[in-house]
Automatic annotation (TrEMBL):
Name by which UniProt lists this protein: Uncharacterized protein
Regions that span the bilayer: 31-55, 76-97, 103-123, 135-159
Lineage: Bacteria, Pseudomonadati, Pseudomonadota, Gammaproteobacteria, Oceanospirillales
Species this protein is from: Oleiphilus messinensis
Record keywords, A-Z: Membrane, Transmembrane, Transmembrane helix
């Protein structure tokens, strides 16, 4: 059987399955579906809250959620993350790609964490405005789980299909 160029390269690269703790024992691809479902439920709740603020003109909510545009950003971001993680799950299953458990955990954590910043800013608009270099690095580091997780999966997809 002749290997494609990408498969040949990947056969030389060793990417360890870092199941370093028992915490990862129960992790499976279905975690991605459960996380996507949770992200969608969060998005739906945020949509209703935004609707009640903008169209229902509920002053009590406006006092708590002082920046509804950030709530809408979070809603959109959670919806996008739902679609991305759902697509990723389907592609992984369709192509028969076995993901390391640490990648699944990174994906699930990142999908829930990334939009969370907008949610926090809906309540406190000044949140996340780091004044120091170290603070800005810390904020940017929050994007690493999704970048590493989706990056790993999409690289594996390219290797599989090329």
């Amino acid at each position: 059987m002749k290997l494609s160029m990408a498969e040949s390269i990947m056969s030389e690269v060793v990417i360890p399955n870092l199941s370093i703790t028992p915490i990862f024992e129960g992790v499976s691809e279905t975690w991605m579906l459960a996380t996507a479902a949770l992200a969608m439920l969060i998005s739906l709740l945020e949509a209703w809250l935004a609707t009640l603020i903008v169209y229902g003109r509920l002053d009590a909510l406006k006092k708590v959620i002082v920046a509804p545009h950030n709530l809408i950003r979070s809603h959109v971001d959670y919806t996008i993350m739902t679609a991305l993680l759902g697509f990723t799950y389907l592609v992984v299953v369709w192509l028969g790609i076995e993901l390391p458990k640490w990648v699944i955990v990174l994906l699930c954590v990142g999908v829930l964490y990334n939009p969370f910043g907008f949610l926090v800013k809906a309540f406190k608009p000044t949140a996340g405005q780091a004044e120091t270099v170290l603070g800005r690095i810390a904020v940017c580091a929050g994007f690493l789980p999704t970048t590493i997780g989706f990056g790993y999966v999409m690289f594996a997809v390219l290797v599989r299909v090329i």
